[in-house]
Structures are given as structure tokens and as C-alpha cells.
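Field log, afternoon session.

UNIT: design team B
ACTIVITY: writing a sequence onto a fixed backbone
BACKBONE:
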């Protein structure tokens, strides 16, 4: 059975079964509640509709986008069925979700849809098509590849002649086609707005607020081109940073991404980024291809350092650059003269695959008047920049900002290598002096980091020693020792302290199997288990023996690292509390004895009183011994 018939059966089942179009996932939308209200004041305290009406674009803000969907279904014998269902479903989605933003119309035209998708400029679309769309604003070409389950979308703006890049999306079923088109076509429409406050650089968007939010086209940061009337203002881009609502309008704070000025009430149009690769062509004054111009690109700003170098234009003046982040690329076009890069132009580029080469005009360096004087002037400017970088590195070192100093020195070194040695002898000496200072600061910084790491490891070892985990403590101290093994510039007192700790751990490990080792474990572990209920004369005598042995063999000198005084101090605190509890218990039974009703009861109570009293008295004797040992 042919695949097209199978697909028809599949789609027919879906159509007969009916479907409901869900709203976009809430997680992908900017909810109305999440938008902050921002008070916008002006000298006359007029409302925004009044301000926009005065500026002449209030009516334009209210006007929905007039779109005509020129579509075709390929690789199927059921074009009419799928087409009718597509129109009805997409119309229904727009009516429920985007009624006040988009007004869709439909044109099933295979030749026109494919022609727009393949065209790189409006002139390549066959002429008969334009007679059908004279009153429309934009055309959205929709080509559905039913066998591949892929949809290609492309926008042609009939007022400006601008074409978008191709947007490809996948679908899973016949009913999914309209949903995917509805969710994605706003990205290539290029939502519009107007600049109305140059002082604060604010933009107001065309369309009703809630409908705009439902398009999912407003991430935290969007990039827009500038139009003045129908003309594109080349080289000027703005970014929206913060979106907020005001009086039913959607507004944004903007930021200029170029060095050019903008005008009040310029129109902005959102850009759809495809990423990928883009060819640029560098041309001279007479549109001659400029060979041998260096190209630098960056996402942060106009940079011309080696890390941002992308290549040199070929004999046709062309070079291909790549966009990996779907953001505007800052492009610097420079010419290398005597090993130094001299910038000829800076421009923000939007990389959009499948588009024509972007043309950039520069001055032909060979035609520059007073060429030798110009070269000398440019060289002097480069030297001055080099001096500034060396001085910047010096200041960074003073402030302890070694990473910034390293970047400045790397740049200075790179530039020094481009000059003849004789021309930069003084600068080379200044660089060498600053670089030497940087090395010393780097060594001090490394030493400081080593010291901190060593102290941190020593603290970890101290905690293990308190728990009598000698082997673990030894391993940690070995790590600290290894930090200094191959470094002669260590702090001698700190290093000697580390060695003393290590030697003491070795002694404690050796004594672990001896009687003094057992005493340490007893004082650290078993003494904590004693309480008023389980204390007996025999246990106190055992305790006394262990403390006496600690007094004979323990290391109680305070100047010795990891001495046994800590164990005795901890023991003293625990036993002092225990002695107090034993005394309280003895007094309790003494009061009970006085209130006893019979001789038998008094005998039993007195026996308990005597037990706790004797234990308390013996514990006081132990505490006296401890106090002498700790003197």
C-alpha cells in the first residue's frame, strides 16, 4: 500500500476523532501577574494613550498584524482535506489565543509557497503572486513535507521587502500541524514596537498586552532592528532587557548595541536568530572586493585580540563567520600594517543561515592619502594603547587583581611581538619590569593559597585527633606536607609546626597498642557512658586507675602538640557533672529516708542513699587528682 494512502488513513482517523487545541504550556509564557507595573511620568502627567496619540503611532499600536498564510502540503494526495483542516484549526487557535494580535488569511498556492521558501530576495518570487496579496502586510510561507513530518516557515514583509530566515519545525500528526505553526510563526513575524523615550530608551510594542504574552516571543532578552519609515537603519540594533506592563500596553527597557544614534519614534522589529554560519563580504568605495582584511568577532563587544581573530578575507573579499549562541555578533574589520591591527569599521552582525552575504564597506588602505603619515599616526596610537595596557597591569597588581593583570600583560606581549624591537625598546623594558613584579605577586599568591590549604588540612587533622582517629589524621597531615615538599619558599615556623604535628601523630600511633593507648580510648569513649544509674564503686576505682596511669605516662605538657591535657579537661567536665548528679541523688534518698513509714522501708532507702553518697565522695577524690594533673 502506498505511503501517501497510509498517511491519509492516519490523518482521517485523527480528523474523525476530533481534537482540542491546548494553550501553550504555562511554564513557557510570561504570566500577566509576573509583569511589574512601572509608573511612567512626563511633564504634563498625560496617560500613555495620549502620549502615543501625540507621537502619531497610537493607531498603529492598536492595529493587528495582517498575515496571509501561503501554504502547500507536499507528498500527499489529500492536499485539499489537510488544507481545509489546517485553515480551520489555525483560524480557531488565532481566534481563541491571538485574536487581537494577528488576523490570518489563507492562500493555498504550491508554486508561491515554495518560491518564497527558496528565494533570497523578493525579486526571486514569481510576479503573479504579488497580485493576490496587495492589501496584506506580511506573507508567511508554509511548506509541509508530510512524509518527513517537517514544516518550513518563512516570512516576507510586503511593506519593506524584508525576508526572514527559514524556520523548520517538526510535527507528529495531522492535528499537530496547525498547533506547531501557531506556536512558531510569531518568531519570524518580527514583532514590532516604537521607540518613544530616548532619554530612558523605552520601547512600546504593537499589539494587545495579553495576546503578546501568549505568543511566547518575549524572553528576558530580545534583539530588534531599527526601521525609519520603510528603510532599515543599517548597523543599529537594540536589546530589550526588562519587560513590564503599563495601562494595557507591553513595554520594555532597551539598550543600544551599536555606536550609532537612534531617532525618536523609530520603529523596531524583532529578529529571529537561526545561528549557524554567515558569509560577509568586505567591499571598497567602488564595491571592489577587499582582500586581506582581518576579521574579529565577539559576543561581548568590539574586540580585536588574537583570541577573537576569525580569519582574513579572500580574493572575493569574503569570509564566513559562525554564530553559536544565537545572539548579535560584534564584528571588527581591521587591516594589518607592520604587524599591528588597525580597525577600519565595527559593526553588529545578525547571523542568519540561507541569507545573502552581508556587505561591509571599508576604505581601501592603499588609497589613503598621506599613507606614510597615516601609518606613523596609527603606529603611535598602537604604542599609546600598549603603554596603557602595561600601566593597567601595574595597577591591577597593586590592587591584587592578578587575573586582570595577566590579561593585560598577555595583550601587551602580543602587541610587542608585532613591532620591530628598536621601536619598542623602552616599552619592552617597562613590560619586563611589570612582568617581573607580576611573577613575584603570583608566587606570593600561590604561597598564600598553599598556606590556606595547609591550615585547612591541619584543622581537619585536629578534628580527627579529637576523635582519636590517628591514622586518618596522619593521612591528612601528609597531604598538607606534600604542599610544601617541592617549594623552598615556605613559612618556616608554619612548616615546623606541621612537622611537630606529624611526629606527635607517629608517637600516638605507636602507643595505640600499649596501656597508655587503652587509657586514651577509655577517657575519650567509655567515660561518656557513665551516669548516675550505672556508676559503681568498682567503675570509679577503674576510672581512678586509668587517670593515675595517664598521670604517669601521658604527655601533659602544654607546649607539646596533641597532648593529653585535652582528654583530662574533657574528663574533668564530664565527671564534675556526674559527681553533682550523684550528690543530688544521695540527698534525694536522704529526704525519702526521713519520710519513710517502716523500718524495712528506711533500711532500703538508706542503702541507696549510702551508695550514691559513697560514689559521690569517691568521684570528688578523682576530681582532686585530675585538678593536680592539670596544674
Amino acid at each position: 500500500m502506498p505511503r501517501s494512502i497510509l498517511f491519509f488513513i492516519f490523518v482521517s482517523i485523527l480528523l474523525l476523532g476530533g481534537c482540542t487545541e491546548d494553550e501553550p504550556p504555562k511554564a513557557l509564557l510570561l504570566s500577566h501577574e509576573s509583569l511589574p507595573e512601572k509608573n511612567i511620568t512626563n511633564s504634563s502627567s498625560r496617560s500613555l494613550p495620549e502620549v502615543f496619540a501625540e507621537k502619531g503611532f497610537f493607531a498603529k499600536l492598536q492595529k493587528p498584524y495582517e498575515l496571509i498564510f501561503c501554504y502547500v502540503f507536499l507528498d500527499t494526495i489529500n492536499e485539499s482535506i489537510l488544507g481545509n483542516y489546517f485553515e480551520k484549526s489555525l483560524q480557531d487557535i488565532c481566534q481563541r489565543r491571538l485574536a487581537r494580535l494577528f488576523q490570518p488569511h489563507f492562500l493555498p498556492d504550491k508554486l508561491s509557497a515554495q518560491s518564497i521558501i527558496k528565494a533570497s530576495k523578493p525579486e526571486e518570487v514569481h510576479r503573479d503572486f504579488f497580485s493576490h496579496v496587495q492589501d496584506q502586510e506580511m506573507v508567511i510561507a508554509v511548506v509541509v513535507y508530510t512524509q518527513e513530518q517537517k514544516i518550513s516557515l518563512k516570512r516576507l514583509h510586503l511593506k519593506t521587502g524584508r525576508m526572514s530566515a527559514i524556520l523548520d519545525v517538526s510535527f507528529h500528526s495531522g492535528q499537530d500541524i496547525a498547533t506547531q505553526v501557531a506556536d512558531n510563526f510569531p518568531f519570524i513575524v518580527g514583532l514590532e514596537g516604537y521607540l518613544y523615550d530616548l532619554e530612558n530608551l523605552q520601547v512600546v510594542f504593537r499589539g494587545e498586552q495579553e495576546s503578546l504574552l501568549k505568543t511566547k516571543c518575549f524572553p528576558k532578552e530580545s534583539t530588534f532592528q531599527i526601521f525609519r519609515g520603510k528603510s532599515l537603519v543599517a548597523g543599529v540594533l537594540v536589546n530589550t532587557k526588562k519587560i513590564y506592563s503599563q495601562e494595557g500596553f507591553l513595554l520594555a527597557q532597551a539598550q543600544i548595541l551599536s555606536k550609532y544614534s537612534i531617532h525618536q519614534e523609530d520603529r523596531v522589529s524583532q529578529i529571529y536568530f537561526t545561528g549557524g554560519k554567515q558569509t560577509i563580504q568586505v567591499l571598497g568605495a567602488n564595491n571592489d572586493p577587499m582582500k586581506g582584511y582581518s576579521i574579529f568577532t565577539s559576543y561581548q563587544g568590539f574586540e580585536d585580540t588574537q583570541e577573537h581573530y576569525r580569519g582574513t578575507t579572500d580574493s572575493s573579499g569574503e569570509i564566513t563567520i559562525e554564530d553559536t549562541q544565537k545572539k548579535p555578533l560584534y564584528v571588527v574589520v581591521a587591516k594589518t600594517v607592520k604587524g599591528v591591527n588597525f580597525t577600519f569599521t565595527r559593526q553588529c552582525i545578525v547571523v542568519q543561515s540561507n541569507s545573502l552575504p552581508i556587505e561591509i564597506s571599508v576604505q581601501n588602505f592603499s588609497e589613503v592619502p598621506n599613507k606614510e603619515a597615516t601609518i606613523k599616526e596609527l603606529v603611535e596610537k598602537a604604542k599609546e594603547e600598549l603603554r596603557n595596557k602595561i600601566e593597567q597591569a601595574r595597577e591591577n597588581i597593586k590592587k591584587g587583581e592578578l587575573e586582570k593583570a595577566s590579561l593585560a600583560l598577555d595583550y601587551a606581549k602580543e602587541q610587542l611581538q608585532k613591532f620591530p624591537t628598536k621601536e619598542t625598546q623602552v616599552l619592552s623594558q617597562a613590560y619586563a619590569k611589570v612582568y617581573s613584579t607580576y611573577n613575584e605577586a603570583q608566587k606570593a599568591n600561590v604561597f598564600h593559597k598553599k598556606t590556606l590549604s595547609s591550615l585547612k588540612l591541619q584543622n581537619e587533622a585536629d578534628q580527627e585527633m579529637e576523635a582519636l582517629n590517628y591514622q586518618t589524621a596522619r593521612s591528612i597531615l601528609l597531604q598538607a606536607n606534600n604542599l610544601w615538599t617541592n617549594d623552598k619558599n615556605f613559612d618556616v615556623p608554619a612548616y615546623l609546626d606541621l612537622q611537630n604535628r606529624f611526629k606527635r601523630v607517629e608517637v600516638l600511633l605507636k602507643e595505640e597498642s600499649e596501656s597508655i593507648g587503652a587509657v586514651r580510648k577509655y577517657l575519650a569513649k567509655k567515660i561518656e557512658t557513665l551516669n548516675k544509674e550505672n556508676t559503681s564503686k568498682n567503675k570509679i576505682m577503674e576510672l581512678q586507675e586509668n587517670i593515675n596511669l595517664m598521670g604517669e605516662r601521658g604527655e601533659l605538657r602544654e607546649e607539646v602538640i596533641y597532648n593529653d591535657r585535652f582528654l583530662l579537661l574533657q574528663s574533668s567536665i564530664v565527671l564534675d557533672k556526674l559527681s553533682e548528679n550523684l550528690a543530688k541523688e544521695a540527698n534525694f534518698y536522704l529526704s525519702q529516708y526521713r519520710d519513710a513509714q517502716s523500718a524495712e522501708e528506711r533500711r532500703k532507702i538508706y542503702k541507696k542513699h549510702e551508695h550514691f553518697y559513697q560514689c559521690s565522695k569517691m568521684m570528688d577524690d578523682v576530681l582532686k587528682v585530675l585538678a593536680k594533673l592539670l596544674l
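LOG NOTE: Residues 1-33 have pLDDT under 50 and may be disordered.
NEXT ACTIVITY: expression trials, pending approval
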